[in-house]
Amino acid sequence: MKEDGAAATAADVARLAGVSKWTVIRAFKTDGRIAEKTRRRVLDAAATLNYQPNLLARSLATRRTHQVAILVDDFDNPYKLPTLKRLTAGLQREGLLAFLVNINDDFTHSVALSNAQQRRVDSVVFFGTAYDPTAASAQILRSSSQPTFVLARESAHDTLPSVFTDPVHGVTELAEHVYERGYRKPVFVAGPPPAATPLGRRRQYQKFWKARGLETLPEIRVNVYDYKTACRVIGERFESDPQIRACDVLLCENDILALAALDVVRYDLGLKVPSDVAVVGFDGIDLAASGSYRLTTYRQPFQEMVDELIEMITERKPARRLVLRGEAIIRSTT
Amino acid sequence: MKEDGAAATAADVARLAGVSKWTVIRAFKTDGRIAEKTRRRVLDAAATLNYQPNLLARSLATRRTHQVAILVDDFDNPYKLPTLKRLTAGLQREGLLAFLVNINDDFTHSVALSNAQQRRVDSVVFFGTAYDPTAASAQILRSSSQPTFVLARESAHDTLPSVFTDPVHGVTELAEHVYERGYRKPVFVAGPPPAATPLGRRRQYQKFWKARGLETLPEIRVNVYDYKTACRVIGERFESDPQIRACDVLLCENDILALAALDVVRYDLGLKVPSDVAVVGFDGIDLAASGSYRLTTYRQPFQEMVDELIEMITERKPARRLVLRGEAIIRSTT
DNA sequence: TACTAATATGCTACCGGTAGCAAATGCTGT
DNA sequence: ACAGCATTTGCTACCGGTAGCATATTAGTA
What whole-number percentage of chain B has pLDDT above 90? Predict the structure, then answer.
């Protein structure tokens, strides 16, 4: 019995219980072929020593860590929080623990991927990250031994499985709704520029309006998905750009931009929504439903996406490219 | 050179470079006493084999995992997201990776703590969790070998270091402001009941009003920090309880409850804020500043709290009980 | 009671690194 | 050429488990 602060090992427990360390280990396995009497004795000894099996040693031997790395580069969009909640809970139910990896200029995708490999995580999830598959990290990704998934964004590689919401359906629903209501002078409010693939929503909106005679869809680009920055940038563009000022509907890439747009339009510019200008979001965050906003948006099925992702991670379902549909929610901003 | 999918080891690299595995390992240490020529040869061999050192093996030997477990039981309060952002970024800068552990009925504090021990994380952070120190997990906590911290909540044990915002200062600032403005019929809007210690804000508000002649502070209790639930519960209480209906100020335990209160009061009950009823929050989330809400609240210094916590985790500063002050932000809901 | 089968326990070799000492090699001066 | 020293490389023993086979013990049957 060592009292030097170091955790007790199976060998310590074995010594106390008068058995070999392999018997101790068997006592902790559910299927262990072990005499009930011995098991109890071992468990008692383990309890007095406060023995906790060392998962590092186990993982080293079994080559399974039961760890998943979740890579996130945008902590400003509030939908991330409930989605992380569901994701961590679901993974934990499967015996998996999640690393929350913050991707930023100091800690790039390459660094994160390399780190994940070194820690031998069982799988990697790109959670809505602006992952650039043309960059050096693609090399790392290809040589990576662990299964990799993309959540809430379309994967750029065909070989990289992903679960995301169909942008064609979502944008079409919203655009048609807006068009039917008679809005004809749209402006797209965009977030940060996508790293590689042009982001689906933008492309779809452009396509929709082009088919109706609008050659180029005017755009306000906000370089961060962040409420405050968005307010500032949108306000500035309305100040300086007459074409923007003349719009009658703001098609926002996501809800957080839409809430910012709504606040600017209503309280800084003093416009009436939806009579002077309409606002449309995308995502379906909780706050979009609030009495203060009542935002027309498209609900992404985040929970379902997470559940499907977990099915893939646990290999109950084959890893593949899975496109899900949400639903348009019409409220009072259109 | 094995091509069987298993990652290359130092021994594989050694074989290719014609050295021993210990030389390979030296080549990867910055301080390694190794001939420059050999290092280059080893690094080349490592590159062709795509060798990545196995951190499990290293951790097993060094007894340091460079992993931190962050325990969270409430994913509904939006301040958690920017705080997690700062926390993960800060830890990563120190070479530490964070486990995001979701505490719930399936995965309790005890389970999480035991899991963290088995994974040999370097430290554990209770991030605003309703940790009940009287429960069985206290036993585990005491016997736990890894340093443990509480973030954004007052720790119940003196021995358990914590970083949190002074509730006395915050509540006093807000309460005095409200009192000066002439509000005299307050109702406290409470979140889930605290596990052990009565939560500071509630107690402080009660104290303040008692000193001014109000024996018991009426209360609306919402059992989850969740916008939708809060709306429902607050609405119901206004319906059914004349004492609640007669109030002139809603003192909310945090901003998310305050936003819900504000929406209910304005849009469901049709009351004017702040003339019919005032609303006060606590936390200082981004959205409280938005044009739609303009909520009077108390800004908690979350970023500073995180930075101080990291100083303790990295042992640059001694682990201790650290109380920080925020500032009252008076906006248009009072 | 002896003999077999079933169950229980112990063993070796290994997972991929680390620590710190031992041996080998290179370099200098005489 | 060789002692004397520093630098470079290799080695043993270990971190705490796992896998799967070998051996010991017990129970069941003739």
Answer: 81
